[in-house]
């Protein structure tokens, strides 16, 4: 267990990545009690300096000896590196909060969203898993509704930004947009397509397009991302038989994931009752005024910490149903912020 201290030694694993930079920003914003911060990354980042609290800190190469004297590890370096290195962090006496998929479905490792299942943290044995970004934002309103009236079934379609797949994917989308814009300006309006040579990280062009595939397909014709949402939600909410179906779509948006969520409840509730229930749940902001065309949009949610919910309405196709629109910044609440909130619970304990 983590020893109670006034300040803690924190290691950021994957410090130079998109989530790693968010770790540094949010630790500073929330004034996390840090004595030493150790920035860890691969060999290609050795010697690079990052700014933290107006000080330049050198990046160190991640190895099995990187965790001596560390209390908390915030990890976002990919599943393979988490599996390879976090056991050494545990051996060194640190508690790790891992943002990868490496340990999420391990029955002995808690999978935590602090607003939903903070009690699960107490079961940790040195590693706590941070859920998938699309799962995190969905379980907040689901938990609010489930606590009030119970949930029978959930159908979700996600609209996930390119930043969820890494910085390189943002650059790929931008390059495609520039290429298409140049083509249109020189030849008039033409086909909005790019050559196969400009498609590297996605299977298809992402600019001006939607790709209904995130991650690889598995035997049941769903993708791994879709089944992550199913299995992680069941584990977090402690409802192993929850009926849930997901379709995950990549969209040409920089930051913030959006989700269309349909919920069949055990008891009937009205739109007004649902709004009141969701408003009262921690970490959620309701933006829902049809008369003023107000609802959450990714362009307005980028950089925000909360999960935003709108378009709340009764599903008229079933006796007890609700529809809602859920948006959150995938790099903050969907990744770095949730991990740091877990760390805050650790030091509070």
The averaged pLDDT comes out at 95
Sequence stretches where pLDDT stays below 50 over 5 or more residues: none
Residues in β-strands, percent: 15-25%
Name the overall outline: globular
Give the proportion of residues in helices: 25-40%
Largest sheet: 7 strands, mixed
According to DSSP, the number of beta strands is 13
How do the strands of the widest beta sheet line up side by side? 3-4-2-1-5-6-7
CATH architecture of the largest domain: 2-Layer Sandwich
Q: Please give the radius of gyration in angstroms.
A: 21 Å
- State the domain count: 2
CATH class of the largest domain: Alpha Beta
H-E order:
EHEEEEHEEHEHHEEHEHEEH
Find the CATH superfamily of the largest domain. Dihydrodipicolinate Reductase, domain 2
CATH topology of the largest domain: Dihydrodipicolinate Reductase, domain 2
Question: What is the first-to-last residue Cα distance?
Answer: 10 Å
Structural class: alpha/beta
Q: What can you tell me about this protein's structure?
A:
With 349 residues, the protein is of the alpha/beta class. Helices cover 31% and strands 23% of the residues. It has 2 domains: 137 residues, Rossmann fold; 148 residues, Dihydrodipicolinate Reductase, domain 2, CATH 3.30.360. Strands 3-4-2-1-5-6-7 form a 7-stranded mixed β-sheet, with helices on both faces. It has a 6-stranded mixed β-sheet with strand order 9-8-10-13-12-11. Strand 3 and strand 4 form a beta hairpin. The longest helix is centred in the middle third of the chain and has 21 residues. It starts with 7 loop residues before the first strand and ends with a helix.
């Amino acid at each position: 267990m983590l020893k109670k201290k006034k300040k803690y030694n924190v290691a950021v694993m994957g410090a130079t990545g998109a989530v790693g930079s968010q770790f540094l920003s949010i630790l500073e914003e929330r004034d996390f009690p840090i004595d030493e911060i150790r920035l860890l990354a691969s060999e290609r980042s050795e010697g690079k300096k990052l700014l933290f609290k107006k000080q330049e800190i050198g990046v160190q190469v991640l190895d099995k000896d990187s965790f001596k004297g560390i209390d908390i590890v915030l990890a976002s370096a990919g599943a393979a590196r988490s599996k390879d290195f976090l056991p050494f962090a545990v051996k060194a006496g640190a508690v790790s909060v891992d943002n990868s998929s490496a340990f999420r479905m391990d029955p002995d490792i808690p999978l935590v969203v602090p607003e939903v299942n903070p009690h699960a943290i107490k079961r940790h044995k040195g590693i706590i898993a941070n859920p998938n970004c699309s799962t995190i934002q969905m379980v907040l309103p689901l938990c609010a509704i489930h606590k009030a009236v119970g949930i029978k079934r959930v159908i979700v379609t996600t609209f996930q930004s390119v930043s969820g797949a890494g910085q390189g994917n943002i650059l790929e989308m931008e390059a495609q947009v520039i290429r298409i814009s140049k083509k249109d300006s020189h030849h008039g309006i033409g086909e909005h397509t790019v050559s196969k040579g400009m498609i590297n990280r996605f299977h298809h062009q992402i600019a001006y397009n939607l790709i209904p595939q995130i991650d690889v397909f598995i035997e049941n014709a769903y993708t791994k991302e879709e089944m992550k949402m199913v299995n992680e939600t069941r584990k977090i909410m402690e409802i192993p038989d929850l009926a849930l179906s997901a379709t995950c779509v990549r969209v040409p948006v920089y930051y913030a994931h959006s989700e269309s969520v349909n919920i069949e409840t055990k008891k009937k509730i009205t739109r007004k009752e649902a709004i009141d229930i969701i408003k009262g749940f921690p970490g959620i902001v309701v933006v829902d005024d049809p008369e003023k065309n107000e609802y959450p949009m990714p362009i307005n949610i980028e950089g925000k910490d909360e999960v935003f919910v709108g378009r709340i309405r009764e599903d008229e196709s079933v006796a007890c149903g609700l529809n809602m629109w859920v948006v959150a910044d995938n790099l903050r609440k969907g990744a770095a912020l949730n991990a740091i909130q877990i760390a805050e619970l650790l030091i509070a304990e």
